[in-house]
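Summarise what follows for lecture notes:
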Amino acid sequence: MKMRDTARTLGIVIGLLIGVLGATAVETGDVLAWIPYVRMTPEYDHVVEALGGHPAQTTTTDPEELEAELAGRTVLLIPEQQEADEETLEALGLAVAAVLTDFLAQGGRIVGMSYSKGADDVLRGAGLWNVTDGYDVTGASLAVALSRHPLAAGVPSAFEGTDGSTDFSDLPDDAVVLVWDTFDEAPVVFTWETGGGTIIMLGFDFYAYTAATAQLLRNAIGVSVVVVDRPDDVSNEVVRDLGVVDIEAMLVDHRLTFDRRTDSYGDPFWVLYLDAATVLLFVDDEIEGATGRFQFLQLYAGWIPEGAVSCDLVNEWNRITRGSRAYLDSAGDVVLEADLYLRGGVTWDTLRQFFERFQRTIKRFETHVFGE
């Protein structure tokens, strides 16, 4: 079976998934990307891929034109500006200082990106701070410093700095560090409330990107522009299929950390991290003619036992419990699975109970098999 094969290639994992399903989305119409000196390929192309669509964009360096472009928008995205030197970017920041200050005063959010040249230089030229890029942290071990912060939602607790990653120095005293280099706790992602608005700085240029850095970008853009497309009470709403957006909206909405991967069949699956535990979430039964919509969910957990586990003990679990199945795989490892079929229609409350029941089941299963 393809799900078991995929799980086996990753190694055995243990964990649980909990949460109430929701729907959140980034409204890119509220975002203006300011790209006068951006290198389009691959950096900006990767930004667009990570966001899932093109925001409005401008290459203007004229303050009045920038002000007009920002009218009615809530987020100004300043990607890395690779095609200019720091002096040019500082001069640009000085020229548009009043525009940026007014935008923040109206509650605007500036999302900056940098590696060696970028938003930090523009904002420094505008007199908003003294932040500078620091050391290259490409390949370094990075970690989420505040796991419960909304900007960390859906981001793995630890990940590697992608090609084109930097840390920062000379942060404002009241800036909040979200991601740091584990070697010296140097800030790589931080947020700062100032002048009535917010500045979020990402130390990535997106020459390369991963699920972790893409999620950080989406969170930075989406925190202030979240659209909830559902009634207040959705417990009885019927669901017959789910797509990637639905599933990841749920995970982000409930601040679960995860990586999306692709199995050998081309289907997505998720490695979810909850404290020290991990679980695999699989989908299957894709709707014919509706690519990316699935009617089957599976939660998978596994253990590598220190000693042999008897088949009789595992079979006893299957005899006395409902809603899950356990087995020993070909390597003698212990596996617990739970399935949910959506084709006939289930409610959101049914989905919530499916995840919560797995949480309770996995704890009882550990006691049954390992006596813990």
User: Anything to note?
Assistant: Residues 6-27, 223-232 have pLDDT under 50 and may be disordered. The domain at 28-222 is CATH 3.40.50.880 (Rossmann fold). The longest strand covers residues 293-303.
